[in-house]
Amino acid sequence: MLTGHLKWPFLFNLAIFMAGIFYTIYLDKYYTKDDKDIPLHHKVVFLIFAATLLVIYLGQFYYITTQTVYGSVKKDKFIDWILQMFVGNLLAFALIYFALSLLVPNQFYDVEGKINTGSLLTRYIEMLYFSVSTFFTIGFGDIVALQNTSRIINMIQILTAYVVQTYLYADILLGN
Known about the structure:
Blueprint: H1 7-30, H2 40-68, H3 75-103, E1 108-110, H4 120-137, E2 143-145, H5 148-174
Antiparallel strand pairs: 1-2
Helix pairs in contact: 1-2, 1-3, 2-3, 3-4, 3-5, 4-5
């Protein structure tokens, strides 16, 4: 599992996402729950993490689709393909949402009004939850994107999720 060209980008995705979690834990120790106390350079680090994951995700999608244009994904590479596309999308957009929520306040709202009141790690997990629920179900409505910026990014995730899933299902059904 996870062989060849697919192994290293996947591991790099996980490493960056985990670095984001550890960085969040670090910031939780030194800053209060108020985003205004966190210096801008710390917030920009999350934006860089997110942009890096998005570039890797798009590169993986390009590589995988160009490898399958002239035939279907080989059975031994199929699980690798699913892991790359699903995990890449989920992690990249979770970090983008988190960085956006740090840089621009009031981007997201949950039904209990607690989205910006928890620790940074809690908010990081909430954005991962938002990313997963967006990818698989178009959301449950318990966390909502309020501003146009977050809505546009959310629409991009929905579109990329549908492209990835459609491509995957077409490859399974057509079995070229």
